[in-house]
Amino acid sequence: MLDVVDVGKRSLATYRGIAPGEILDELHHLSEDLRGARCMHLSSTPYGGGVSEILRSLIPLYNDLGLATDWKLIHGDDTFFQVTKRIHNGLQGAPGELTESEKATYLANAQLNAHRLVTDSENYDFIFVHDPQPAVLAALSPHLDARWIWRCHIDTSHPNPSFWDFLSPYLHAYDAAIFTMREFIPPRLPIQDVRLYPPAIDPLSPKNHSLPEPLARDVLEWIGIRTHRPLVTQVSRFDRWKDPLGVIRAYQRVRPHVPDLQLALAGSLAMDDPEGWEVYEELRDATAGDSLIHILTNLVGVGNIEVNALQSVSDVVVQKSLREGFGLVVSETLWKGTPVVGGRAGGIPMQLPEGTGGVLVDTVEECAEAMLHLLRRPDEAHLLGERGHAHVREHFLMPRMLRDHLRLLKHLASVRPLPPRGIVPVSFNPAQLQKGA
């Protein structure tokens, strides 16, 4: 059996007055013909990255609309996740190639997961598969009569051919694929129905709920941040594509001009990312002896509330990615009205259009200049943050992402109609989403 992640219950009605009302209204109408359908989202880890954060908020909203939806996890040993990390990097353009042994490890684990999938998944109407780790399962489970969707969250615009040639033949079994941007669609993709849907944040999650400023400052003092001093933060996985060493170099260029400036590097160490431990040790070595640089992880109790406080209180947040699928932390930060210095990579520019949210950069030098500029001009920084908040509300909140998904499911159900099913008992009351409710 595949492990099921318990996500609790949520109500779309609680987004009224926060997310655009027209999106909430459309969700009610889209869900009418889908009520009773069974859905599954399949991923590799319940914590530690953007996919898990999205699913923890998204799955309860599916259920609230009457689609019986589960979130399940594939199994794998350390060797398997080392291989999937190499595939992840290779699909983003990293050099190298998979050995025959690594291919065998990946496929052997996939076969085991396909067997587990068959034993408990025969009645699903829709199966979303997230990212490369479980991507081959549609091809290995041909007798499951579901509509399969591959959701690729990473930048696969220029994949290493060795990795792409290995993975792509297994993708023919999908009915549809979702990418964040058109530029991310890899060459010779064997899936005909391709949708372009950016991810979204949950404004009502613990990470994004509004924190009273005194509480936010108390939280940061508790983890060693001195809130009377200026603060620059990067929140991300410990991943070389996020360029944390480049952030440190940019910070070191700014420090002589702002002598008491602090830098916080906050990240999660996830079970499907063994490379994260190596990067974490590199950061510890690179910052040893500097008491104004704070390396913070989930292993020392830094979770959603602490990240919320960091994004809320920081003077500037940096996301200097070299490759980036979307970068949820950019929208999270802008939702709190804090300006962002972002790498000109992947989905970051769509979150930081000209004059909104912050500044886009390409180099360590540009990053340092933008940080110093915003630190010296707090009024301009505040205005950028306000515009960023409005931009996120319009484009990057969870109900909009749910709407995109339901549009795709309705289309797939029109191409191949769903079998008759009894209505799933749910607490959803359509009147709650009516305009003015």
From TrEMBL:
Gene3D superfamilies: Glycogen Phosphorylase B (3.40.50.2000). InterPro entries: Glyco_trans_1 (IPR001296), Trehalose_Metab_GTase (IPR052078), TreT_GT1 (IPR049438). Keywords: Carbohydrate metabolism, Glucose metabolism, Glycosyltransferase, Transferase. One of its GO terms (biological process) is glucose metabolic process. Pfam families: Glycos_transf_1, TreT_GT1. The keyword Ribonucleoprotein does not apply. Homodimer. PANTHER family: SYNTHASE (CCG-9), PUTATIVE (AFU_ORTHOLOGUE AFUA_3G12100)-RELATED. This is Glycosyl transferase family 1. It comes from Corallococcus macrosporus DSM 14697.
